[in-house]
Amino acid sequence: MIARPHIYRLLLGALLACLALTAVGCGLTAKMTEFMDSQDTSLRKRVCLANFTSGFKGLEPQTMAWRKAMENTLSAQGNLVLVAFDKLAQEMEKLPPTVRSQEERAIQAGRVLGLTSVVLGQMTDLSVRRQLTGIYGFRGNDPFLGLEVELRILDVASGTVAGQKNFRPQIKLNDVEAEAIRMGEKPKDKQVHQVLGELVKETNQWVLGAINSQAWAAYVLEVKGDMARITVGRDTGLPVGSYVTVYGRGEKIRTGAGTILFLPGPPLAKLRITDLKPRMGWAKIMPYDEKSKEPPKVEPGLLVRSN
Length: 307
What we know:
By secondary structure, the chain is of the alpha+beta class. It has seven helices and 13 strands.
C-alpha cells in the first residue's frame, strides 16, 4: 500500500505531466470541439479540489486559506458536487501496478468517481516588485506586494488540461514598507490578508468559468447482461426514467508524455436509468439506433453524456 502523502505527490506530478499534451493539444482540441459543444449545464458536475501546494517557504497557511475559500465557493454552487480529495487518492491506491503512468492512474481514478474536473493549485511567490505608474513625464516607480499562484484544471473525460492560468494580484506599498520587506521583514498580516482577498476573488471567478465551460461527464462502471452500473446518482439531478448516451472509443492518440488517450467515438447505446443511489445508478442498455439488430457492446470505462 502506498503512503497517503506519497499519493498526493504522485497525483501532483501526474497533473503536472498533463502539460506535456501541448504536442497534440491543438489537434486534439479541434477534433473534440464539435463533440464538446453539446453540453447540458442543468446537470450537476462532480469536481475534486486537490490539496494545493506551496513552492515558497512560509506560505503554507496562506495556501490552505486560499484552498478553503475556493472549497467554500465551489460547495455553494448549485450545479457542482465537491468530491473530497481523499477519495481520489484512495481510488488511485486501488489501481493495479500495471497502470504505470501516474497521469493515467489519476484519470482512471477520477472516472471511477464520475469526476468532470480536478483542480490543482500552487502558490509560488510573495514578494515586492516595482512598476511604473502614472502618465509619461510624471511617472513613479511604485512598490507593490504581489502574491503569485498557478492554477490548472484537468478534464477527466479527455485526460487533458482544460485550463491553466497564472495570477498575481497585488496591493500598493509605500517606500518604507517595501524597504522593510526587502531587508527581510515579513509583510504585515493585514497586507497579506488584503492581497489574499484579491487572489480569492480572481481565482474563484476563473475556476467557476472554466468548470462551467466543460461538458458534464459520467462513466460506465460495470455491465451485467442488459444492465449497466454508471456514475450517475441522485446528486447528478437526473430522475429515474431519464436517458443518457454511451459513446464508444474513438481514435487513439499518444501524447507527448507517452500516455494513450481515446477520443470520444460515435454514440453506441442509450441508457434508461432504472435505479439511483446517492453517487451511482443502474440503467437498462438499449440500442442507440432502433433499426439496429445487434445488441450494443457496452463495456466498463466508456464515456456517458446527457442527451
